[in-house]
Amino acid sequence: MGALSDRAVAMLAAVHAHPGLSRAEASRVLGIGTGGAAEVVGALVAERLLAEGAPLPSTSRGRPTRPLTAHPEGPVVLAAAISHASWRVDAVELGGASVGSLEGAHAGESAAAVLAQVGTAVTQLGDRFGDRVRGLGVSAPGVVTDERYLDATILGWRHVDLAEVSPGAGPFVAGNDATLAAVAEVRRGAAVGARSALHLLVDAGLGGALIDGGHLVGGAHGTAGEYGHLPLGDPAVRCACGAHGCWGPAVDGGALARLAGDPEPRDPGAAGRAVIARDDAAARAAVATVATRLGRGIAGLVNALDPGVVTLGGLAADVLAAAPDELHAACTAGLMRVRRAAPPPVVPAALGPLGPLAGAAEQAWDRWWAALRR
């Protein structure tokens, strides 16, 4: 593949963001004439970076419109998502569709053991797609610094180098699972079109991110969004992070299990979902309590951050579905009067458990665009 012009890179990014875009629509998005767009598209098709679909039905005169899509032999990125109990690696083509996937489970083994499993899957998919691979994005459940090093307190992992799963082909980037899920919801999920969007992901703990004007609010060290460590929980409870009274342990799967009278779970996500699925008094009370705690915290974040929409992933979406009245009542009660007049919608994440994986792929594509523009 030869060097790509800025227009060609912009065209690829536009088709990635809007699969099925026509040449005419692409010319408007890029602010260039139809002739220039046709020239760019022709070059990208010849390089097997884009494909043109069958002509779409039209009642107007002129050449029929052909949708621009990923080329069947075109570039892909690899995306890996590691959770507290499982992992998955996908090959993702232009436009966001998965064209290959491998997955497995783990029981909280050492970071080295789990990364070895993930690395093997990355290598297998890398071998399958060969020189089509343009980069790798990794999602992980914890604080990720320098877009590479992971501290996952619940798993007992400290300063883990996530780049160990990379075969070294193309750009590498890693991020927190909740943060990457937020990116995915803004680009392809329930927050598309929102000026400012807050995403919260609950599983074993709580994380999240604020996307404002399409940009991730990362903070001074790139680790903003650790909302689960706001002091909204019981001050007597010490969190695995070292602080007391964190919000996450009061609303996650472990909290649901404890409130329902169950033993401390090894897999908080699975335990929380099991409590939500039950229909006994203890389980219903546990869900109502967690819904109230979650709603109060959401109100505080809405007061402070002023998002246009709040999306909930993981167990937070399940709690919303199971106890919407309790969650919304607690949220409304905690809102400032100025916020209460027009509160942002609180909705389940559209991408569900695939959000972190989709976000990892988006970040990998972003890195490739940036590399092409250098």
In short:
The chain is an alpha/beta fold and 374 residues long. The protein has helices at residues 6-17, 23-30, 34-46, 111-129, 177-188, 248-251, 253-259, 268-277, 281-305, 315-322, 324-334, 337-340, 355-373; strands at 50-52, 68-70, 76-82, 86-93, 98-105, 133-140, 143-145, 149-152, 157-161, 172-176, 196-203, 205-212, 215-216, 309-314, 346-348.
Number of alpha- plus pi-helical segments: 13
Measured between the Cα atoms of the first and last residue, the distance is 16 Å
Low-confidence stretches: none
Rg computed from alpha carbons, rounded to a whole number of angstroms = 22 Å
What is the number of strand segments? 15
Number of domains: 3
- Estimate the mean pLDDT confidence: 92
Please outline the helices and strands:
Elements: H1 6-17, H2 23-30, H3 34-46, E1 50-52, E2 68-70, E3 76-82, E4 86-93, E5 98-105, H4 111-129, E6 133-140, E7 143-145, E8 149-152, E9 157-161, E10 172-176, H5 177-188, E11 196-203, E12 205-212, E13 215-216, H6 248-251, H7 253-259, H8 268-277, H9 281-305, E14 309-314, H10 315-322, H11 324-334, H12 337-340, E15 346-348, H13 355-373
Parallel strand pairs: 3-6, 6-10, 11-14, 14-15
Antiparallel strand pairs: 1-2, 3-4, 4-5, 7-8, 8-9, 11-12, 12-13
